[in-house]
Amino acid sequence: MRQASGRGHGKLILAGEHAVVYGHPALALAVDRGVTVTLTERPGPTALDEGPCDERLRQALAIALPPEGLGVRIIGDLPLGRGMGSSAAIAVGLVRARAALEGERLDVDTCFSRAFDVERVFHGTPSGLDHAVSARGGALRYEKGPPARFTPLPCPSWDLVVLDSGCAGDTRELVEGVRARRPAIDPALEAIGALVARAEHHLHDPGTLGPLLTENHHLLQQIGVSTPALDALVELALDAGAYGAKLAGAGGGGVVLALCDDPVALVEQARNQGVDAFACRPVPQGAPPSEIP
Ligand code: PMV
């Protein structure tokens, strides 16, 4: 009975969400949380033995795997539906596990394009950012194009704190809401684009980058995608001395990321206030993708 595993990294958008839909650049980062998919050969139809079962996942399995002969286990430490790229990480994990089982050496570009086909099941028209980061690791500057452009950036050495609002946002609805508020909010979208260009040059300097992240959050408030719960998490982080904090992803729920000197202390403070929080480390490009957490 052969068995093989594949892992996809989670991601956080450091700056530029929503504005990226209108051609502005975004900065994103792979993190040391993710999803591991394990395939085990066995008789009978291919089916999920362990994992977050829903109809879209069933469709993703049908695209990624042969119809017969495999048991599938999906385990991970990414909060689901919180803007941390869980569906892209599952897609990348599936593609990698299948290649490993079949003894195929998979280069990153092939992994990216196969995962793109699987990811369409989850998101319809994904920008490509999530699974590029999930497959490659590291930090990326992304422009939608066409053609889409992914520019690898040197991986930062600081850790981030993630504060979970405890509820999911609906990316499709939030993107539509932003579209409906244009052109009134176009100046804020332009300002986010300009901010990303500055942030990119300060990736390795938390003291300068942090306030830019907070400025990005205020612009996301202006375009109507933050919530009182997300604003409160940003305030919690800033009150605790963080360099900066912002919602990460589409908003309406999901997570806040914070950049600070002492992630362990911030996680503890947040937990003391009843907030689910954890520290995340950026994963360098080309980091081993297949370890089981
Ligand atoms: O919430 P997420 O991780 O799916 O991020 C969405 C990012 C947006 O810029 C809001 C949409 C997009 O397609 O780029």
Fraction in beta strands: 25-35%
Q: Which spans of ≥5 residues are poorly predicted at pLDDT below 50?
A: 289-293
The coarse silhouette is globular
Structural class: alpha+beta
Q: How many strands, which pairing sense, and closed or not: the largest β-sheet?
A: 6 strands, mixed
Q: Considering DSSP H and I runs of 4 or more, what fraction of the residues is helical?
A: 25-40%
Bound molecules: (3R)-3-hydroxy-3-methyl-5-(phosphonooxy)pentanoic acid
* Average of per-residue pLDDT values: 92
Q: Output the number of helix runs.
A: 9
Beta-strand segment tally = 10
Q: Span from first to last CA?
A: 22 Å
Can you offer a commentary on this structure?
The chain has helices at 55-64, 86-101, 108-123, 129-136, 171-181, 186-200, 206-222, 228-239, 263-272; strands at residues 3-15, 26-45, 47-50, 68-76, 139-143, 149-153, 160-164, 244-248, 255-259, 276-280. The protein has 293 residues and is an alpha+beta fold. Strands 1, 2, 3, 4, 5 and 6 form a 6-stranded mixed β-sheet that branches. A 4-stranded antiparallel β-sheet has the order 8-9-7-10. Bound molecules: (3R)-3-hydroxy-3-methyl-5-(phosphonooxy)pentanoic acid.
Topology diagram in text:
Elements: E1 3-15, E2 26-45, E3 47-50, H1 55-64, E4 68-76, H2 86-101, H3 108-123, H4 129-136, E5 139-143, E6 149-153, E7 160-164, H5 171-181, H6 186-200, H7 206-222, H8 228-239, E8 244-248, E9 255-259, H9 263-272, E10 276-280
Parallel strand pairs: 3-4
Antiparallel strand pairs: 1-2, 2-4, 2-5, 5-6, 7-9, 7-10, 8-9
The structure holds (3R)-3-hydroxy-3-methyl-5-(phosphonooxy)pentanoic acid (PMV).
